[in-house]
Amino acid sequence: MHFAYPPRKSSHPPAYPARGLSRSLSYNQRRQLKIGAIILCSLVFLILVLSRLFSSGMERIPPGTPEVVIVTVIDEENMSKDYIAKVQDNRKEYAARHGYATFFPTVSSYPSINDSPRTWSLVPALRHALTLHPHSTYLFALSPHALIMNPTLNLRTHILAPKRLEKLMLRDKPVVPPDSVIKTFGNLKGDRIDLVLTQDGEGLCPGSFVLKNGEWAQFFLDTWFDPLYRSYNFQKAEAHALEHIVQWHPTILTKLALIPQRTLNTYNTDIASRGGADALYQDGDFVVRLVGCDTDAARSCEAEFEAMRVKLGARKMREGLKGGG
User: Fold this and answer.
1) Is the pTM higher than 0.85?
2) Are the C-beta atoms of 93 and 323 separated by less than 8 Å?
């Protein structure tokens, strides 16, 4: 009887260390794949972020987009239809001459102001304008009790071009005259400015100013319209709230340029406390405001507007300009 022998073991069995080395290499490969996957995901994420940034910064502006939108809030309860029409015509004529747009929201469009003074409607109106004109570069906020008196002046060449703005900027100037400890910065560049304001003898003047469109503008308007500030019952409502946030928010002050009052905000009446004769309109000035006409019972905004409108018409006749103002 023959019994089967068990198979003989190889005389050259695989070395145990070799099996251990194989496992070690497999682990290293898996580790390298994980590292590679992490690097690849990081690169994809970085590419997406950069493409988003560059695409938003280089967003295509639709043809025909107006560079400037003139925003005037109409108080339909306290202005006659004739007065409103004349105010709108003044802005429309100027806008048509320079390829700008106009926006005439009404106070009643913004119930969010609730029991706050009606002048607060300026702030949500500007936020509204940003939504309607996302590609325009500037908003020109102008009181309804004001006239553009020199329609030949282009906002960019007159004020907003960076080099021009750097020449106009009032540096190291108290934000609220005469002796505010908070002063404008002395080293700002024109291309870094997003808010252009004037001041008179009493403070900042939100009746005529320019705001550059962008994320900073949204932040600025949201801050200005904070319910907390509206609840403070400032004596001059949004004007005093503006002075507050400019002085106590460096993020706002670093984007602010104060320019000479005559450049953007002259007055039709000699008011000593608000600049006196130095602020009084002179022929050729860009804008005149009927400052205080709506709060003084002895004055009439419509009558004063018409008087300045006649002066504007006479100036146009002399210079051969079209339009009635």
Assistant:
1) no
2) yes
Residue 130's contacts (CB-CB under 8 Å, 6 or more residues apart) are 139, 213, 217, 218, 221
Q: Cα 220 vs. chain centroid, distance in angstroms?
A: 7
Q: Where are the domains of the chain?
A: 68-319
Q: What is the maximum alpha-carbon separation in the chain? A: 139
pLDDT tens for the chain, 325 residues long, are 555 545 555 555 555 454 444 455 566 777 777 777 778 777 777 777 666 655 544 568 899 899 999 999 999 999 999 999 999 999 999 999 999 999 999 999 999 887 899 999 999 999 999 999 999 999 999 999 999 999 999 999 999 999 999 999 999 999 999 889 999 999 999 999 999 999 999 999 999 999 999 999 999 999 999 999 998 889 999 999 999 999 999 999 999 999 999 999 999 999 888 988 999 999 999 999 999 999 999 999 999 999 999 999 998 888 887 665 5
Distance CA 285, CA 264 (A): 8
What's the one-letter identity of residue 52? R
The residue type at 296? D
What's the distance, CA 42 to chain centroid? Answer: 35
Give the homologous superfamily in CATH for domain 68-319. Answer: Spore Coat Polysaccharide Biosynthesis Protein SpsA; Chain A (3.90.550.10)
